[in-house]
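#struct-help
A.M.: can someone run this one for me? Single chain, 384 residues.
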Amino acid sequence: MITPPLLILCAGEASGDQLGAGLVAELRRRRPELHFAGIGGPAMRAAGVDCWWDCSELAVMGLVEVLKHLPRLLRLRREFLARIAASGGCAYIGIDAPDFNLGVGKRLKTRGLRTLHYVSPSIWAWRQGRARGIGECTDRVLCLFPFEPELYTRHGVDARFVGHPFADELPLQPDRAGVRAALGVNADASVLALVPGSRRGEIERLGADFLGAAALLCAARPQLRVLVAAANARLAARLQELLRTAQPGLTPRLQFVTANMRRVLAAADVALVASGTATLEALLSRVPMVVGYRIAPLTYWIVRTFRLLKVRHYSLPNVLAGRELVPEISQDALTPASLAQALARWLDDPAAVVALQQEADAIHRRLRQDASARAADAVLECLP
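D.P.: on it. Structure tokens below:
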């Protein structure tokens, strides 16, 4: 009896889980005999991946934060590598989470297993010379953004632009009225979306300031409604604790929406978003935004002291536009007042909103490449 080919995948957070699910669905459509296992979340499970561990095990960000979890992560990596060795898998696909996946990929590549990395690490922001080292960890990099393959090509690394699945999934013309009706929000209301992140650490660093900014805006704008996107019930409960403690007066104006960030963004006139992939979803939803970013003080000191950040802008909308398309507010500059002031500018300047939406449309069309299908093409070329 012939054993069906097994692909091992590893996604490190919610966005990677979605990418993995789309890729698996496309691979399964073309090669029904393929089996899938590894580390993932609910979307990958629903797509048919046998998840040995949940992707939440890897959802750690920041240099200092990773150090705190390092013993557990090293133990997980050892156990994962052993499980892969025993599985008979024919290829490994690391999905984002480069600190974990590239280390696993390098070990597997030295053992002769075909390895791919889906989502290029942000070498354009940190160190472009890393491309050579990434090539030692993987046979092929699948890039979401059109400017990335060239950074690898100059170091002799095989990299393909596949487009971004979010650009395929999100409509070019958002149905704002329909989404508002589904949420019970008046079509004529002014709506602020709060998207404080999908990790507990982000909620602790940003949640209180995001809620404080919403309270300031609501005090000045009696008709403003606030929608809060919580990644899961656990994070929703923590945000509700912060609300009761710091801004109890905001409660009547605020509505929590769990595990449906896209609906929240689609309903919004303006959004306050934690830096990360959510900023891209906001852009593709044509929502003007303010981006907030705060990391642990020691991590920030290391980044500044050693000049690790090589770009002026860190949020994806600004990187893709090549200029400051949306405000970025970080570290000590991030306060309820500074956030509220930046948000108010969008609400008071319709012409600026129209200009952003035109730029967002152009970016959306560039990224809309049927990404899961193109990623599947790149994976299948590497399979026996």
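A.M.: thanks! Residues 63-87 form the longest helix (25 residues).
D.P.: also worth noting: The chain has two domains: 6-163+369-380, 176-367.
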